[in-house]
Amino acid sequence: MTAESTVPSPGGQPREYGFSPVSVIPPRGAVGGFRFPAGQRTTARRASWLPLVAVDGIAALATGQALGETQRHPLLVVALLLGAVGLNTRASLYRPEPVPAVLDELPAVCARIVVTWCTLAALLAALSPAGALSARTLAAGCALQSAVSCAGRGTVHWRRRRALVLRPRTALVIGPAATAQRVAAAFLRHPGCGVRPVGIVTDQPAGGEGLPVLTTGEEVQRALIQNSVRAVLVVEPPSARGPLLRALAEAGCTLWEVDADSPSYDRDGHHTLAGFSCRQLSVVRRRGSVGKRLLDVAVSGTLLLLVSPLLLVCAVALRLSDGPGVVFKQERIGKGGRPFTLLKFRTHRPVDAHEAATRWSVADEQEMSRFCHFLRRTSLDELLQLWNVFWGDMSLVGPRPERPYFVGKFSQTYPGYAARHRMQTGITGLAQIHGLRGDTSIEDRCRFDNAYIDNWSLWQDICILLRTAAALVRSTGS
């Protein structure tokens, strides 16, 4: 389940041993003095979903009243209301967009109204043929409800866009000075996006014109309070600013990852602000993560008990065939850029620490013993990672962890690679069950890993574990 094969490191040779832009996150609460005093926390203004629900409800009731269906079929009107609201909720049409526009959602709203009317008309014709709706009534109902609903939604969205222009959310831009100033200038030129940058957060001060540059935690804290900052635009890999982003999120700021270089079209889960492709970040602990952790502890603990005899046999056989040093330890990067020590059975021996850290895999793999080949072919060398899962360094399911050097290289080369560290790394994942192991596309892994995180559910984890188990059984010929 690792990305290891005998090939040179991608991207050429390292400039120097140990190069990695990935931050090592210090303990919580020790973030360079960056803390918020009690009573000074900001409150992010969020658009309510109630006006849109009310508009759809009014549209259903008004349509039923206008067509005279309220008296003939009172339950039909109730079903219209519930059907429209239910379908729109499932389609996330009550989750406000950063810059709402009725034309963007018009096809989805009208399509769900038509589906609701046709479904109810079919049920009514089947249950009570005498009271079936005529084709004229059906067409009129779809058209009238769509018109009223879209007109109401347009009014709600217009008021919200006007409020964004009159009272924009103040924001900080985090990233390299030149890129951050460029992104901030673009947002200032487009006030309709409702975000007004007031400062740049970067490591090194930069001269020239532009917004004030903040380089210390105290400056960030002061700017946050004085300007009532409620949004943060991140133009660098989020893993490089884990502690600061977590503190800002807990203070009530909305975090946006801004892709300052790539085009914004055809990117699932992304919004467009000031012409940039933006994705909302979540660095605060998710409610579902408790269930994920319980699953990890239960499954890894049970498996460790069941396979402990097998682990002992593998360790003894490996000691006899390859000598001392049965356990292989290597630094990997986990959630939020935190390093941890990954455990495996040793199936090969690097020439030195430099090769182990900066080569995609170790040379002379063909010289491994038959038993080591067996361990790797059956993935039995990965079993020790159950200890990583049990102690909380990893999860059963998640993006595969990589060495610091390659995290740095891949984060610079492949868009979305750094975003994989939003969630705990895992033994297996969505990319692995789709064949992305060994010497396969890093870009494809990014896409699958981020899709897994964006659509995470406990059931998805269970399905991935079952498919992984089935693949392991097939690989052993059972």
UniProtKB/TrEMBL annotation:
Location of the Bacterial sugar transferase domain: 292-473
Cellular component terms per the entry's GO annotation: membrane
Superkingdom classification of source: Bacteria
Membrane topology: Multi-pass membrane protein
Pfam family, one: Bac_transf
Sample GO molecular function, one term: phosphotransferase activity, for other substituted phosphate groups
Protein family according to the UniProt entry: Belongs to the bacterial sugar transferase family.
Keyword Membrane tagged: yes
Keywords: Membrane, Transferase, Transmembrane, Transmembrane helix
Subcellular location: Membrane
Name the UniProt record assigns to this protein: Exopolysaccharide biosynthesis polyprenyl glycosylphosphotransferase
InterPro entries: Bact_transf, EPS_sugar_tfrase
Keyword Electron transport among UniProt keywords: no
Originating species: Streptomyces sp. R35
